[in-house]
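Q: Hi! First time doing this. I have a protein sequence and I read that you can turn it into a structure. Is that right? Here it is:
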Amino acid sequence: MSAVWDQVKDQIRSDIPKNSFSLWIEPIACMEATGASMVLGCPNRFSRNWVMENYLSLIHEKLEAAGMGHIAVDVKVQSCKRDPSPASMPAHPDQLPLPSMPRRTNLWLKSQFTFDRFIVGQSNEFAYSASRNMALGQPCDFQSLLMLANTGLGKTHLSQAIGHTILEKNPDSRIFYMTAEDFANEMVSSLKTGQIEAFKRRYRQGCDVLLLEEVHFLGGKEKIQAELGYTLDALANDNKRIIFTSALPPKDVPRMSRELTSRLTAGLVTTIADPDYETRVQILTRKAAACHLSVSQEVIHYLAERLRRDVRQMESALTCLKARAELLGARIDMDLAKEVAAALVSGEQSVTPALIIDMVCRYYRVEPEKISSPSRKKVYAYPRNIYAYLCRHYSDETLAEIGKTINRSHSTVLYCVEQVAHRMKTDRTLKHQIEFLSGRIEDMKK
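A: Yes, that's right. Below is the predicted 3D structure, encoded as C-alpha cells:
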C-alpha cells in the first residue's frame, strides 16, 4: 500500500506548486492501510491540521483515480523516536550533537548521497565543482556556499556529499547537518528549558562544519534569523566551513532580514537548474543499473524526453517499471514505458504559455502587453495572477520561464499562484472563472 501512496503523492506533485508539495505532502507517510481505510502520518500537529484543511479532498480524489475507490483516510501525527537534539544534551565537549559523531553519521547522512553517485551535467556542473572544492578543503576565496534549486534537483545530495567527504578525510570533524526548521526548533527548546547559553556555545564553538538545509524556512522568524546571524559570524571568524541550501534566493524570501540575507550570500552562490536531455539520459541509465533493471536505450531515451521535472520523477518511473516487471511479469518495452510516463506526466499534449495568455486576455478583455507591464492596477494584476496560476498547472514551463513571459521573478510567480489558490477557497466568482478557463484548456489538449 505504501507503493500506492507514493504513486498518489507523485500525482499530487503535478497539481500543486513545488514548494507547497515539498513542505506539506512530501513528508507524509503511509502508516497503515486496509482495503477500506488508510492512515497517513504527518510530522507534526500543525502539518496535520494544514493537510486536513487544504489537501484532504485532493488526496481522496487521487486515491480514487488510483483505483482505491471511496477509501476512508485518517491523518495522524506520526510518532517517531529521534535522538536528543543538540540543545537538549549536556554541554560537555565529549558529548557533541549526533551529526558530529562519525560512527553514527549514517543516521543523518544518507549513504548513497556521495560525489561518485552524483550525475554531473550542464545544469549542475558549477554547483558540483564548488561543492567538491569546499569538501576537499582546497584553497579558495569563499568560506560559505549557498546552493539554490527547486525540490528534487540534487542540492541535498551535494550537501550531504560534502559531509561524507569531510568525514572520510577527518573522522573527528564536528559536522552539524540539519534543516533550518531543526535549528529553529532546537533554539526554541533551549529557550524554554533555560539552556540557550549552552545552545550558543555548541553551535558557535563546537562546530567545524555547518550544513544547513532549507534556509528559506526562516522567513518571518526574526529572533531565529538574528541568532543564526550571530552564529554565522562566529563561525566565519574562526574560518569554519558553512554550506546552505534553499529553494529561493534569500532576497526573495518573504520577511528575510537584510542582515541575514547579506550573510547567506557573502560567499559563493550557485544554482542548479532542471536537468537537460543528455543529463536525464545519464540519470535514467545510471539509476536503472543501480536497481538491476534491464531497460533498452529506446525506452531510456523516451523517458528522458517525457520526464523533464526532476530526478524524483525519473526514479518513480523506474520504480513503476520494476514493480510491473517483478509483480506482474510484464515486459519492459515501449508500451509499458508509455503507460508509466502517461501516469506521471499531466497531459498528453502540452499547452504553451502563449495560448494561455491569449485566452486569459480575451476573457478579461485586456491587451497582452498590459499583463507583462509593471503596472499593479487591479484590472491588470488580476488576470496576470490567473495567467500565472493556469500556466503553472497546465504548462510544462518552470516558474522562471513563466516569469519571463510577464517580466516577473520566479518567486513572484509562486506568490501569485499561492494567492489564487488561497482565494479560490472563499471567492466563488474566482473559482467559477478558474473552472471555466481550465475547461477551455482541457479542450485545447484534446
